[in-house]
Amino acid sequence: MNRDWIATARTLSEALPYLQRYSGAVVVVKFGGNAMGDDDAMAEFARDIVLMRQVGMNPVVVHGGGPMINEMLGKLGIESQFVRGKRVTDKATVEVVEMILSGLVNKRIVQAINDQGGRAVGISGKDDDLMVCEADDPELGFVGRPVEMNVQVIRDLYSAGIIPVIAPVATGMADNETFNVNGDTAAGAIAGALQADRLLLLTDVAGVKNAEGDVITQLTPEDVEALIADGTIAGGMIPKTETALKALRDGVRAVVIVDGRVQNACLLELFTEHGAGSLIRSTAPRVPPQAR
Ligand SMILES: Nc1ncnc2c1ncn2[C@@H]1O[C@H](COP(=O)(O)OP(=O)(O)O)[C@@H](O)[C@H]1O
Ligand SMILES: CC(=O)N[C@@H](CCC(=O)OP(=O)(O)O)C(=O)O
């Protein structure tokens, strides 16, 4: 008997408790622009999402697209700068952000999922007033902080067997306002409002690193706060970890910062006892489901 087949059958068998545990679970997956990679990496991500749906989970994809926005801003000669991991966004910038995120990036992911046999529908935070924002900080311009979430549209989509793919662009309280929302912030707000079982934040690093550069596989909210305070967590990792803390406070059971460059990162995280990044939750170590 071919050893590879035996190993495959064993892997499937070992996944059973995880499949049972996550049946019906709502899992919000934030797919960062840096994690997107080439068409093959995109197809592999899409395949994982379709598999999650196929085994009875309710995956909800929230995406970023920072590098793609940078590229277009560069072509247009618009300068852009970041403060604490968020893009300072003026009127011209927010138009480019909406065009790239709701258009190019959103539809690329939708197409990739549909190509794998899933049924993806792309929306932004504007659709059905999913995410209503206020200005986060006057210094940042049109950067939004979600203040009202209307997630029924997401429930309607996944209840109909559809995989929602959401661009982090939002409407404001006043007419005709558009806000640029950090992708991690949007994913956290959506996961919180859905009371999701898991929030996976896919990125291009192995996880949250300590001052020596080693990945920390499990952290409590207190650990995260200390690492932000002493500057070990910096740049784009700040909104990511702050999102994790807020999502936990809002009732999400656990948040994982996942290395999206690892093959089948989502499956590895959900269906095996080996994680692929840093797990953040209040207590309890990473243990197989039958022991929980
Ligand atoms: N302590 C840390 N551990 C890991 N990454 C960190 C840390 N502090 C800062 N970073 C930076 O945060 C980046 C991830 O954030 P970001 O680039 O916004 O990701 P994404 O585009 O996937 O959302 C990493 O590439 C890394 O440069
Ligand atoms: C306010 C803010 O910073 N918005 C982000 C939105 C995209 C994003 O978050 O993309 P990644 O996940 O790929 O970094 C931006 O303009 O880049």
TrEMBL record:
Reaction(s) catalysed by this chain, per the record, are: N-acetyl-L-glutamate + ATP = N-acetyl-L-glutamyl 5-phosphate + ADP
Q: Which Pfam families match?
A: AA_kinase
Keyword check for ATP-binding, yes or no: yes
Listed A to Z, the keywords are: Amino-acid biosynthesis, Arginine biosynthesis, ATP-binding, Cytoplasm, Kinase, Nucleotide-binding, Transferase
**What InterPro entries has UniProt attached to this entry?**
AceGlu_kinase-like_sf, AcgluKinase_fam, ArgB, Asp/Glu/Uridylate_kinase, Glu/AcGlu_kinase, NAGK-C
Record localization: Cytoplasm
Q: Which GO terms describe its cellular component?
A: cytoplasm
Q: What is its EC number?
A: 2.7.2.8
Query: What residues does substrate bind to?
Result: G65, G66, R87, N180
Q: Where is the Aspartate/glutamate/uridylate kinase domain?
A: 26-259
What start and end residues bound the annotated signal peptide? none
Name a GO molecular-function annotation.
Answer: acetylglutamate kinase activity
The record's annotation in NCBIfam families points to:
argB
What protein family is recorded? Belongs to the acetylglutamate kinase family. ArgB subfamily.
Q: What is this protein called?
A: Acetylglutamate kinase
Which organism's genome codes for this protein? Thioclava dalianensis
